[in-house]
Design brief:
By secondary structure, the chain is an alpha+beta fold. It is built from 3 helices and 6 strands.
C-alpha cells in the first residue's frame, strides 16, 4: 500500500469568527471522519496546525517571510496520513471529508518511499 498526505487548506478567518459552539460541531465532524478512517484501517495519523500562516523559507540565500503566500489567504491547517492502493483509492477515501463541506481544499499527495 502507498502512503498519501491529505493537506487541508482553507482561509482561517471564517473559523476564527465562528461561534465556539458551531466550531465544536465542525470539529466533531472531523473527528468522526478520522474515526471512520481509523476503523477502516487506512488512517496512519493526523494533526491540526494552529490557525496562522506560519513562516515560509526560500533558498538558496535563505529568506523567511510570513506565510502562506501573498496571493492567497488559504493556509495549511492540518494533515492526515493515509494508506491507499493508488491516487484513485486515496481520493475515494477522502471525498466525504467534512473539510470539503465548507469550501476547504484538500491536496492529495503520494509520499515517496525513500531507501533507508
Amino acid at each position: 500500500m502507498a502512503q498519501f498526505l491529505l493537506l487541508l487548506h482553507s482561509d482561517p478567518e471564517p473559523w476564527l469568527k465562528m461561534p465556539a459552539e458551531e466550531r465544536q460541531k465542525w470539529f466533531a465532524k472531523y473527528m468522526a471522519w478520522a474515526n471512520k478512517a481509523r476503523e477502516g484501517g487506512y488512517l496512519l495519523g493526523s494533526n491540526k496546525l494552529v490557525d496562522d500562516g506560519g513562516k515560509v523559507m526560500r533558498g538558496p540565500k535563505v529568506t523567511t517571510t510570513d506565510g502562506p503566500y501573498s496571493e492567497t489567504k488559504e493556509v495549511l491547517g492540518g494533515y492526515y496520513m493515509i494508506e491507499a492502493a493508488n491516487y484513485n483509492d486515496a481520493v475515494q477515501h477522502t471525498k466525504d471529508h467534512p473539510h470539503l463541506e465548507h469550501g476547504g481544499t484538500i491536496e492529495v499527495r503520494q509520499v515517496e518511499q525513500l531507501p533507508r
